[in-house]
User: Fold this.
Amino acid sequence: MNVEYNTKYNSHFAKYIKSTLELQVSLGRSHETSAFNLQNFDRFICDNYPEADKLTQELAQKWCATGLSETGSVYKMTTIRSFGKYLVSNGIDAFVFPTSWIPKKRTKLPHIFTDAEILQFFSAADTVPPHPKSPFSEYTIPVVFRIIYACGLRPQEARLLRRSDVNYNNRVILVAESNPSSAYYQPFFIPFFTS
Assistant:
């Protein structure tokens, strides 16, 4: 989800989208999810309501209703609520989702894998065939999944690791990309990676 806040927006909301993202960046807030969602909102407006120049309840609700997942809808509603609040704070008449309209995220119980499922998973990861569009994936996929499993990393954290983040001498991995202000070292154990 590497969408920059200076992406070209084409709807009548373009300058406001860019300025709200610039504000988020200047405040040190993460803007990637908002940038991604607002880019989709901009595209939705251009495709369906090219003349729209006011954030109305109808526009907000129709955009939030697109897509399939409830979680995605929550992210959209949160993003469009924040955008509406930004518009209102700048003296522009806009709809702002009431917080009571935004469903609470449901906590899902984690799945605990059995030993057999773990063996089957790593067996599948170890047999990923080479693919011309993803060179070395047959080597990186097994390693990335082992790092996630053995170190308890989030998928995003593992995906953003660089070789320089791994210190083999001290047996630690620098996890800096999840949130630069809360970078941390995660120990790892060599035997797991030498199967």
In short: The beta strands are 166-167, 172-175, 184-187. Residues 133 and 188 are 30 Å apart (CA to CA). The chain has a mean pLDDT of 86.
